[in-house]
């Protein structure tokens, strides 16, 4: 599937919402004809069941019993199970696109999704959207439900935040952009309170961000930010990187998955006022402990200069890719 909507339809087919014991069929014909409200309560289990049909109680048992052929695999999410049970209690929800209105959390991982399409607006109750490990390079904020609180785009191809920040969800609390193609300094301007007034957690790890001073100047506007991940960026190689961030963001609780204790904050106190320490350079020490399968250089040094016969000379080139 190329879009999120297409991937969701594939997900619904995997859940078997159109098939027994869910769906609309002879096993619940009378309930479907009655057009029961989507707010149907389990109290309906007490009603008489016509001959040839199954009660909602029996159908739910077929979904919940681990030994049932209609039970979901153990690795399926609790939401998938709840969605099937809701459809059993109110099968008329399968008409039209009403099922999407029940979804609060949507996880589509490694499905080849390339487009966050406007079909997402059907998810009027969506609070969590996980689209990791896909091929998304552009996110149009106008296609995101305004109810979103969590947006995870880890392991994608996002290289620009302009479209995402045009009309971002105002209640968003977590934004995950780790392992993407972000590079500074043009992207830092999109990481301010003007776009993310309620952001608590931000993951920018393993991108290509280089401007530590510029990034910090924007992040200081995020008064609710408590969790920040920046490891894997070139700016994390700067020697005073962690100390400068800890002192610059006094409300931060966790940096790069490491809790900030009061002792550490006290240790780096005053570092934020010394931006001259932040240089656009880094020192990297590479130590090679042991290499196997290569001739020992000492063996060649023992050869005499006037030695007769062929002499084999070996040279090696070591390349470091960052």
From TrEMBL:
Task: Tell me where the transmembrane regions lie.
Answer: none
InterPro entries registered for this protein in UniProt: Leu-rich_rpt, LRR_dom_sf
What Gene3D superfamilies does UniProt report for this protein, alphabetically?
Answer: Ribonuclease Inhibitor
One GO location term (cellular component): cytoplasm
Q: Per its UniProt entry, which superkingdom is the organism in?
A: Eukaryota
Which PROSITE patterns did the record assign?
LRR
Q: Which UniProt keywords apply?
A: Leucine-rich repeat, Repeat
Q: How is this protein named in the record?
A: LRC43 protein
């Amino acid at each position: 599937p190329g879009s999120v909507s297409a991937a969701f339809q594939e997900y619904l087919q995997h859940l078997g919402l159109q098939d027994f014991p869910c769906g609309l069929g002879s096993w619940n014909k009378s309930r479907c004809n009655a057009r029961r409200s989507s707010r149907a309560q389990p109290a309906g289990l007490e009603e008489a069941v016509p001959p040839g049909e199954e009660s909602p109680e029996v159908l739910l048992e077929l979904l919940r019993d681990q030994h049932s052929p209609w039970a979901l695999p153990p690795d399926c999410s609790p939401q998938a199970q709840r969605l099937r049970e809701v459809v059993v209690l109110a099968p008329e929800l399968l008409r039209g696109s009403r099922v999407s209105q029940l979804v609060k959390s949507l996880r589509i991982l490694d499905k080849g999704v390339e487009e966050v399409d406007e079909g997402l607006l059907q998810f009027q109750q969506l609070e969590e959207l996980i689209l990791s490990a896909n091929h998304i390079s552009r996110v149009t904020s106008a296609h995101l439900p305004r109810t979103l609180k969590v947006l995870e785009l880890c392991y994608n191809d996002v290289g620009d935040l302009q479209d995402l920040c045009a009309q971002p969800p105002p209640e968003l609390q977590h934004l995950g952009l780790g392992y993407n193609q972000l590079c500074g300094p043009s992207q830092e301007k999109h990481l301010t309170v003007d776009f993310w007034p309620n952001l608590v957690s931000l993951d920018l790890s393993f991108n290509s961000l280089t401007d530590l001073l510029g990034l910090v100047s924007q992040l200081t506007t995020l008064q609710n930010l408590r969790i920040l991940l920046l490891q894997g960026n070139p700016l994390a190689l700067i020697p005073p990187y962690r100390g400068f961030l800890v002192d610059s963001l006094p409300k931060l609780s966790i940096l790069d998955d490491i809790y900030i204790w009061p002792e550490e904050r006290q240790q780096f106190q005053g570092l934020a006022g010394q931006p001259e320490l932040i240089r656009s350079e880094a020192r990297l020490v590479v130590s090679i402990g042991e290499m196997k399968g290569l001739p020992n250089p000492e063996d060649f040094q023992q050869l005499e200069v006037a030695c007769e016969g062929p002499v084999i000379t070996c040279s090696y080139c070591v390349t470091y890719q960052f």
